[in-house]
Amino acid sequence: MTGTGQERARHWQYAELPGVDLLRARYVHKTFVRHTHEHFVIAAIADGVEVFHHGGADRYAGPGTLALVNPDTPHTGRAGVPEGWRYGALYPPPDLVAEIAAETTSLRGAPGFTAPVLDDPYAVGLVHQVLRAADEGNALAADTLLRVAVTRLLRLNGGALPQRVPRTAGARTAARARAVLEERIVRPPTLESLAAELGTSPFALLRAFRDAYGMPPHAWLTDVRVRRARGLLDAGVLPSEAALAVGFTDQPHLNRHFTRIVGVPPGAYQRERKNVQDLRRGPA
């Protein structure tokens, strides 16, 4: 658990829930910048209020409610009351949610959540029970309760995710710009040079990219850099080396953006990952 003063957070994995990230946190002044996740976000609010911008509006999640975010969906996060908010969160990967949906629901296609906030104290309790079981090393309970929680949320608030297919010229231009940025993540072009390369104007590209991905190119690039840094940290790469590998100028630059998106510093994140890897390997 990392933290200073009133704020504290632990972001970890449990070896018996492979691919599922876990978070327990209390934030007061913390602000999450606009970002996305590759996994689902199931955040159960214990007390206080979280405000997060999602789908063009501010959403409010208070005690007994869940903030639910589908993969690759831009959103923010901040306190909605002076005392902040305390919550626990599960981040199951899309393939696990699809597996659970196929087995326990009638949903077809790629499953997801239809509303970003759900008032369901029972499901909130299930999320916190999963975290408690993981803390206690109770694999059977953690896996069972996770599946029960996801099933309940999909039955109450589930639907098929829309498929994003670029149809307009602007969407196609945005997709081409994204491919260029992914390829040149360490040394990306300026907006002007990228627009010229794609045969459009800077402001037209900015509008098209924001419409397609929910954020401007520079914010999207920071989000992708943090994602890639997480993968490198998971593999044991030092934070200072990961920073340079994904295009940040130095480790403090990585620290700042990583903490604003993930919620904990990269060093604390990596230490938790190392603990899980050591447990999986067992005694020497």
TrEMBL record:
It comes from the Bacteria. Pfam families: AraC_binding (PF02311), HTH_18 (PF12833). Keywords: DNA-binding, Transcription, Transcription regulation. Residues 175-272 form the HTH araC/xylS-type domain. Gene3D superfamilies: Homeodomain-like (1.10.10.60). One of its GO terms (molecular function) is DNA-binding transcription factor activity. InterPro entries: AraC-bd (IPR003313), AraC_XylS_family_regulators (IPR050204), Homeodomain-like_sf (IPR009057), HTH-like (IPR037923), HTH_AraC (IPR018060). SUPFAM superfamilies: Homeodomain-like, Regulatory protein AraC. This is AraC family transcriptional regulator.
